[in-house]
């Protein structure tokens, strides 16, 4: 059977690309170091496949149909459509239809109902961390788009359960592949609302601390705090998927720094396999 | 509350060709969307708080980025009107 290669998480704010040169040097160097360290950990884990958990920032879905969760089951997916991501070297990213279809079928069997797509556009949410981590080789990617953009969103507890389901699907997938999870987004930020630009460092640090505590305390804290911590903070759902995949164990912070120049509390972490 | 057609305009403006046309002839592009008079006025006035009540926050940010407004100015307008 396939094996779990570990879980990883990184922020993905657009200004990490759009305004990269405008970030004060000390912070830019620290961000660069954190991305590279995360890339080193991903490389060391030798994943054949990465399940990339990100929101869809209106690249694929609109108000006509915005799924709570969508799994990309295609042979390939498109690179980022944003004009300011044109420097990203991959215009097409290899998928892993066999594992993606297995994950989809296991989901349905266990009472989860994601949508599916045979070709997705992977926007900055997926691609900024993949770019900045400077991976020597790109694993096959199975996109898992979780709605943290347009309310109402999947519950936090459900996202944790999604992670456990991903782990189960890895464990029941025939083959020798090593399959990891990369969660992107968060930590606190506020986009297009009155509090735009606010970073809640206290919330971020407490959340980070709780990733090493009980799942219940983590979810309860987030349920209480998220409504007042900026809409971008909702992306912590993706971290919960990673946490669930890691069975709530082995969280290790790479770095955290609030970066006003990118208006994000930037977090980087991994979970041991 | 979501104004579907306002949101659709912002969503469509992610296409570079349409964004270029919008910059050159805003009225021509807007005329293709059944927007109310008050929404048209809010677009003309760059009235961020009014528009924010009618669309998704991320779409709103894309829109103001597309028309060339810096995030700092966009944030100021959201706060102060």
Summarize the topology:
The complex is a heterodimer of chains A (273) and B (81).
Chain A (H helix, E strand, L loop, with lengths): L2 E8 L4 H4 L6 H21 L3 E6 L14 E4 L3 E3 L13 E3 L2 H13 L5 E3 L6 H9 L7 E7 L9 H16 L6 E7 L16 H10 L4 H11 L10 H10 L5 E9 L4 E8 L2
Parallel strand pairs in A: 1-8, 2-7, 2-8, 3-6
Antiparallel strand pairs in A: 1-10, 3-7, 4-5, 9-10
Chain B lengths: L3 H9 L3 H9 L1 H5 L6 H8 L3 H5 L4 H10 L4 H10 L1
Strand order across the biggest sheet of chain A? 6-3-7-2-8-1-10-9
What is the CA-atom radius of gyration of chain A, in angstroms? 17 Å
**Helical residues, percent of chain A:** 25-40%
Shape of chain B: globular
Order of helices and strands of chain A: EHHEEEEHEHEHEHHHEE
Residue share in β-strands of chain B? under 5%
Compute the average pLDDT of chain B: 96
**Overall pLDDT score of chain A:** 97
Structural class of chain B: mainly alpha
Q: What is the count of distinct domains of chain B?
A: 1
Structure description:
The complex is a heterodimer of chains A (273) and B (81). Chain A has 8 helices and 10 strands. Chain A is of the alpha/beta class and 273 residues long. Chain A has a single domain (3-271), classed as LigB-like (Protocatechuate 4,5-dioxygenase, Chain B, 3-Layer(aba) Sandwich). In chain A, the strands form 2 sheets. Chain A has an 8-stranded mixed β-sheet with strand order 6-3-7-2-8-1-10-9, sandwiched between helices. In chain A, strands 4-5 form a two-stranded antiparallel ribbon. By secondary structure, chain B is mostly helical. Chain B has one domain (4-80). In chain B, 69% of the residues lie in helices and 0% in strands. Chain B is built from 7 helices and no strands. Chain B has helices spanning 4-12, 16-24, 26-30, 37-44, 48-52, 57-66, 71-80. Chains A and B meet through loops of A and helix 1, helix 6 and helix 7 of B.
């Amino acid at each position: 059977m396939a094996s779990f290669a570990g879980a990883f998480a990184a922020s993905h704010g657009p200004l990490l690309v759009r305004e990269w040169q405008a970030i004060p040097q000390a912070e830019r160097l620290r961000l660069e170091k954190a991305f590279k360290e995360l890339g080193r950990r991903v490389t060391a884990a030798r994943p054949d496949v990465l399940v990339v958990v990100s929101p869809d920032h209106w690249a694929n879905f609109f108000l006509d149909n915005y799924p709570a969760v969508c799994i990309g089951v295609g042979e390939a997916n498109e690179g980022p459509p944003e004009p300011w991501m044109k420097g990203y070297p991959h215009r097409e990213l290899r998928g892993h239809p066999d594992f993606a279809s297995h994950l989809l079928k296991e989901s349905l069997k266990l009472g989860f109902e994601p949508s599916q797509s045979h070709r997705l556009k992977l926007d900055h949410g997926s691609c900024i961390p993949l770019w900045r981590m400077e991976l020597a080789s790109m694993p096959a990617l199975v996109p898992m788009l979780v709605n943290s953009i347009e309310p109402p969103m999947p519950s936090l507890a459900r996202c944790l359960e999604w992670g456990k389901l991903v782990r189960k699907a890895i464990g029941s997938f025939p083959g020798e592949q090593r399959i990891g999870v990369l969660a992107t987004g968060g930590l606190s930020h506020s986009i297009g609302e009155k509090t735009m630009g606010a970073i809640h460092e206290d919330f971020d640090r407490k959340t980070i601390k709780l990733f090493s505590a009980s799942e219940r305390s983590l979810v309860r804290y987030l349920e209480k705090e998220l409504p007042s911590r900026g809409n971008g903070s909702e992306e912590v759902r993706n971290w919960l998927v990673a946490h669930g995949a890691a069975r709530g164990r082995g969280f290790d912070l790479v770095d955290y720094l609030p970066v006003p120049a990118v208006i994000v509390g930037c977090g980087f972490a991994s979970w041991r396999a | 509350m979501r104004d579907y057609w306002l949101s659709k305009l912002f969503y469509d403006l992610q296409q570079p060709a349409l964004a270029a046309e919008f910059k050159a002839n805003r009225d021509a592009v807007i005329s293709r969307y059944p927007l109310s008079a008050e929404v048209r006025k809010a677009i003309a006035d760059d009235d961020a708080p009014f528009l924010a009540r009618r669309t998704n926050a991320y779409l709103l940010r894309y829109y103001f980025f597309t028309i060339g407004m810096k995030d700092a100015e966009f944030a100021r307008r959201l706060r102060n009107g």
